[in-house]
Amino acid sequence: MNTAHTLASPPRLEFWFEFGSNYSYLATMRIEELARRAGVALEWKPFLLGPIFRELGWSSSPFVLQAEKGNYVWRDMERQARKYGLPFNKPSAFPRAAVLPMRVAACSAGEPWIAEFCKNVMVQNWVNDLDINEVLNVRHALEALVPEPDIVIRQATSEENKARLRRNTEIARARGIFGAPTFLVGDEMFWGNDRLEEAIAMAASAQGNFLEVRTMLLSQVGQ
Questions:
Q1: pTM: predicted TM-score of the whole model, two decimal places
Q2: Is the Cα dihedral 63, 68, 69, 71 positive or negative?
Q3: Residue 173 contacts by C-beta under 8 Å, 6 or more apart in sequence?
Q4: Is residue 2 scored above 70 in pLDDT?
């Protein structure tokens, strides 16, 4: 990690996430507002966890492969969602395929509506227990955000954009990302929803207000 480089960088936060990741749900629902309050620019970085897990030798999520960890995580999700005032229902399928909405996120990461789209998809998965890989549901997630959802979906399924999502995943792996959500401030890595406030505070430190922002953020979650 090159902290000196990090502190000299502009206050930007990279948010690496996956719609099939339960802790990414919590971070997705919170990150835009926290970054805005801290004056930190947010970069949405969708990537696929499956290829990374396979490279690590796992056939599925560790929450599936390790029963004790799986039992723990669903109880933890109930507690964490309650803590943040977010709705949560354990989905009937986990991990749920999310290639299509991830492709939409990859081709739309710079759009002003990206945060709302991601929240819509997360709610479909983690609250309404819908198949988020279905075209119909992806269209519904886009309907209030763009005039022609089907155009966005066609762009998302282009070969160029498929390659973009693969490239994001390769970059994530090359940068040492092993799970989601992961936050990067320069080369400084923070893993897990419970490190979101620390990551934003680190990004804000480039503006010289690290302690002020950290205190503000941690007070919001009662830490």
A1: 0.88
A2: positive
A3: 51, 52, 55
A4: no
